Amino acid sequence: MDRSELAALLRQARTRIQPRDVGLPAGSRRQVPGLRREEVAQLAGVSVDYVVRLEQGRGPRPSTAVLGALSRALRLTDDDRDLLFQLAGSAPPQAGRIAQVVRPSVLRLLDRMADLPALVMSAKADVLAWNSMAAALLGDFSAWPPQRRNIIWQCFLGTDPGRVRFTPDELRAVGAYGVGTLRSAKARYPTDPDLDRLITELRSGSPQFEQLWRERPSAQWRSATKTIDHPEVGVLVLECDTLLVPDTDQSVVVYSAAPGTPAATALDLLRITGTQQFTAPT
C-alpha cells in the first residue's frame, strides 16, 4: 500500500468534484475547492475521521468495498479507480463483476438534465449517481449507507417508506420486477460476490422475496407512471422512463411531466427550492 500516493489521489479527486455534481446542495461560505471531506465521507458511507486519515497518508488499508464506495463518491474514471485500488494494495475490479462506476460521459449527461430528476442504477439496482433534482424530488440518497443504497433492498427490507406511493397491485408488480431484475443479473454475472450477498440477504430476511424468488418471475423494470408524495409540493404524477447504457449494463432513470400540467409546475418549483424544507417534519 502506497499511503502517500493514495492520499494525493484522494485529495486531488476531491477538489475536482462540485457538490452539484453529486446531487448535494452547494451551500454558502465554502472555503475549499470541490467537495468537503465530510461530504466525501457522507457519500462513501465512512466516517469523516477515516477520510482525514486516508488523505493524510496515515489511514489503515481500505477494504475493496470502501475503495469501491470512494470511487463512486469521487466519480473516478475506470483508470483512476484501478489506480486507487492498486495504490491501496488491492486488485482492481475484475471482468464479470457488475459495473459500479459511472462513466464520465453518463455523469455529464446527468448533470445536463438540470430541469429533470435523474439517477443512474447498476444492473442490480444500486443507486450509483443522481442529480440535484432527483435529491429534491425523492430525498437525499446519500443518507442511505452505501450498502443499503439499493432500490430492491429498500423495497423488501427498508424501513423508510420513501416518497413513491404504490397501489397494492403496483406494489406486487414492483416486487416481481425486483426479483426478475436480480435473476437476470445473476444469469449475466454468476460469480459477482456482491450480487450473491444481496440475494442471500433478501432471501433470508424477506419471506415475500423468498416466495417470489421461488416463483421465478421474469418481469423487468419498465417505463411507468409514478406517484410521488412530496412533503413540500404535494402529490406529483410523473412519467418515469428508463434509458439503458448497454456496455456498462446500467440504467438512467428520468422523471418528467408534460408541459403545463400541475406536476410540471411542481418540478419547476423544486428546481428553485431544491432540498430545502419549509414545513416541520411530522
Automatic annotation (TrEMBL):
- Domain (HTH cro/C1-type) spans 30-81
Q: What top-level branch of life does the organism fall under?
A: Bacteria
The protein's name in its UniProt record: Helix-turn-helix transcriptional regulator
Q: What lineage is on file?
A: Bacteria, Bacillati, Actinomycetota, Actinomycetes, Mycobacteriales
